[in-house]
Amino acid sequence: MKLYDTMRRGKEEFVPLVPGEVKIYSCGVTVYDFSHVGHARMLMVFDVITRYLRFAGYRVTFVRNFTDIDDKIIRRANQEGVPAREVSERYIAAFHEDMAALGVLPPDVEPKATENVPEMIALIERLVARGYAYPVEGDVYFEVRRFPAYGKLSGKNLDELQAGARVEIDERKRDPRDFVLWKGVKPGEPSWPSPWGPGRPGWHIECSAMSSRYLGDTFDIHGGGDDLVFPHHECEIAQSEAASGETFARYWLHNGMVNMRREKMSKSIGNTLTIRDLVARHDPAALRLFLLGTHYRSPLEWAEERVEDSARALERLWRPIDEADKQAAAGAAKDEPLAPELQAFRQRFTDAMDDDFNTPEALAALHGLSQALRSGAVTGPQLVRGAQELKTLAGALGLHGPRRAGVDEARIDRLIAERTEARRQKNFKRADEIRAEIDQLGAILEDKAGSTGWRWKGR
Questions:
Q1: How far is the CA of 30 from the CAs of 73, 82, 124, 214, 257, in angstroms?
Q2: What angle (nearest 5°) sits at the alpha carbon of residue 241, between those of residues 236 and 244?
Q3: Residue 297 lies in a domain
């Protein structure tokens, strides 16, 4: 398996820190508004990466955070006259609804910044003690010139860097490029006690503290959108490696942006499409097929008609499944070995995904398998086995069949009852398998106190 590493600017053989295990950290969303399709792409990219690594046999620990304290959250809370926590919790709940609708699996750990402030303070204390950071009137700054490797991820030259849009101009800084680790309290803002007085953490320190807490000082993959390369990820590297003396992340993966009319999709520009609006108009599986049709590192131009094309392509992809289900019901054997000419599609699929998660080529392998099954040359047990293979490989991408009105709802209810019993017996492996099966049927589980309900994706 080879991954494109942003740090080394090329494809590198993937060798995890611990054989057979992969630890991944992906920067999550700032929860002050509904998530949009640009977020959906990033979230789906790392959903597919974690799914495929598990499919390939790795034990994956995936951590994705929430930034739930931030200038934008505070601004919105003050506008509404409510506590910042009320705003962040509202949009965290909305985010979870959106992810369920998209079929994006929850991470193994989903920390909130506000729940990890003590870890952030301890990290800042370590940086001050080691001479990399300095306090000024209740604030604390990281001194960029003390870390000569600053710029190694983005390729920016420290001497040429100018104070950018995210770098506040502050005459108290030793250098305008120094970035804030701790912000002293201001009127109307939430705060926490610290050795430098009450205040709140800066943005960059959050991910360093949370990734270290849950994955260790060094882990395998750090990812996010390519708009985070500088300054966010660059600053994470500086503060993390200055504090630990160790390599922070061994591989850096960044997805391209979603553009609308050749402009980056952004809330600040006002050209966003929310996830909840999209899944109301489109089958989430078709939306996933559209997003995966472009390699994750490339920019993607949003086009509504291409999602509609993807819906038709999804119908063609899944067409052999219906006939296979009929033949299986008629008694066609399910355990017959797959013919070599059909086995070849799995190799094509894994070769593509092992080449920096090349989903366009992997989808081409799926469409090739589907076409072979639709040709009429494959019948009986081989059609049933081929259809099973198609569903298995598609499942490694999180793809399920198109939303259908005729799906047996009683079957979903039976699966939910089986899952409830598996959980009661603490057979969580089986419970997770059932959840994945229900996901393949195009439904979303909704666990509530004492019961489990469900709804169709996008409804």
A1: 8, 17, 22, 20, 17
A2: 125
A3: no
Residue 298 placed within a domain: no
pLDDT digits (tens, 9 = 90+) for 420-432: 888 888 888 888 8
Return the ∠ at Cα 131 (arms to 126 and 134), rounded to 5°.
Answer: 85
Tell me: do 206 and 351 sit in the same domain.
Answer: no
3-state DSSP call for residue 339? Answer: coil
The overall longest dimension of the chain from CA atoms, in Å, is: 79
Give the other-Cβ count within 10 Å of 182's Cβ. Answer: 25
Residues 6+ apart with CB under 8 A from 424: none
- How far apart CA 209 and CA 117 sit, in angstroms, is 8
Within a domain: residue 62? yes
252 and 340, same structural domain?
no
**What pTM did the predictor assign?**
0.84
Report whether 63 contacts 26 (CB < 8 A). yes
> What is the percentage of the chain residues whose pLDDT exceeds 90?
71
Q: Contact at 8 Å (CB) between 422 and 430?
A: yes
Tokens encoding 442: 């195009």
Dihedral sign for Cα 440, 360, 57, 29, please.
Answer: negative
CATH number of the domain at 58, please.
3.40.50.620
Which amino acid is located at 302 in the chain? W
Q: How confident is the model at residue 446 (pLDDT cuts 50, 70, 90)?
A: confident
**Structural domain of residue 342, as residue ranges?**
313-395
